[in-house]
Amino acid sequence: MSECNTGQVAAYHDGELSPADIACVEAHLRSCPACAAELNALRRIARLLADQSGKPFTDREAANLHAAIDANIDRPIWRLGGTLAALAASIIVVCGAWLAEWPQRNPPAGTAPTAAVEPWERLATTLRPDPADLPGNDKSRLADARLADWMIQGVLKVESQ
What we know:
By secondary structure, this protein is mostly helical. The protein has 7 helices and no strands. The mean pLDDT is 76.
């Protein structure tokens, strides 16, 4: 063991190493004060825990402990799932808005610029007339006959061109 490895020091403390690895760690501990201090800290912690004389849990205490763990085990997963769902929803909204604007800003390559949309074409495709484009002074109401005449005039105008 030429480099510091706290995992190896912990495994040495717990007696989990092969004889060859034990020799490497012991050689490293003689030359490395940081790893020697780590081993001493592990030994102090082990002594403190060994000195604690705890009585075993009663059946009721063990059941309460298991119930508390079971009640809280799924909370971080749900919190993470909710966060990821909110993030995914915001990405979908942003991408949808971007895709809605993209064709208007960037026409496909090789296509000719589009001509201005005639009022009758806008009405035919959206079913929403623009009052500023309507002929006449009555912009608040559209009579069916006037609307039909206006649309026919637009169609005839396009066909004559």
